[in-house]
Amino acid sequence: MTPASRPPAAGSRATCPSTPPPPCTRTPRVRPPTPASSAGPSTPEPSRAPSRSTGSIGAALGSWRRRRTDMDEMQANIAAYEQTVRSTIALAGTFGDADWGRPTECPGWTVKDQLAHLVGVERDLLGDPAPAAEPREFDHVRNDFGRYLEIAVHARRPVPGPDVLAELADALERRLARLPGEDPDRVLMCPDGREGPYSRFMKFRAMDCWTHEQDVRRAVGRPGNLDAPAARCFWELLSRGLPLVVARRAKAAPGESVAFAITGPPDFDVTVTVDESGRGSWSEAAPTTELAMDWETYVRLAAGRCTAADVTVRTEGDRDLAARILATMAITP
């Protein structure tokens, strides 16, 4: 089964709205780029005689540039994916027997289960045969996608942790050997339910692997790699959901603006404003409500790993709205 025909392969099950976040920085406050139409008049180009070949050359050049962009993104996302998986492997190589069975913030999954999940996804993408074992019904499995993900995890529950780690190391090397031959423009279904190029799919893989690395690190009390390249993938994919959270889920009133001040590294500072039609979008408006939190807190909330009661968030402005936002911040189901 090809990646395009399988169920989505991101363990954090991201379902992200399509509005991209503004660029990422801390100082000054991040704003969306100014549209070209509002940038002021520009000097007109000298007129040229039309050419029958101009259109085809322009189309070819545009196609080349898009492909170059996809290729650059593919390489960056592969590098982010490799870095976080290698970080997980290095961490797990230090585990004692007790560490493998520690519970994580993914319901029903231990530290070993987290690695088994990564193994299952990567081997699936390699085209390896799926385990024959079908999982039992578990309280934490709520839908068909969850049952699909549970197969690889359940099949490895009798397997010693070091053996699961060896499987992950082998799967990573085989994936890295194969990825240079993948067409970054090849279209397949991404975990957010939208079709996209393979380069974008690899951003989801980097995000997913990093999210589970952080699950493991919290479980064993070994924080680290919070500012990895894959952390940027997490932000770029999941922060797209903030306008939806503010406007639709938390039902902020038209005219309200909510600022998210996230300190790390990495640091992010963005504002969402709700317009008269009830839609949320990135904005430069002065916030009427502000939520300030550290990066790990944002990650846990956006990934659905905890509730607002489990973390510390400083709020200013409309406290009721802030509470509704914090209660509905999970983008991954």
TrEMBL record:
Residues 86-217 form the Mycothiol-dependent maleylpyruvate isomerase metal-binding domain. Residues 1-67 are annotated as: Disordered. SUPFAM superfamilies: DinB/YfiT-like putative metalloenzymes. One of its GO terms (molecular function) is isomerase activity. InterPro entries: DinB/YfiT-like, Maleyloyr_isom, MDMPI_metal-binding. Residues 1-17, 36-46 have a biased composition (Low complexity). Keywords: Isomerase, Pyruvate. Residues 18-35 have a biased composition (Pro residues). The keyword DNA-binding does not apply. This is Maleylpyruvate isomerase family mycothiol-dependent enzyme.
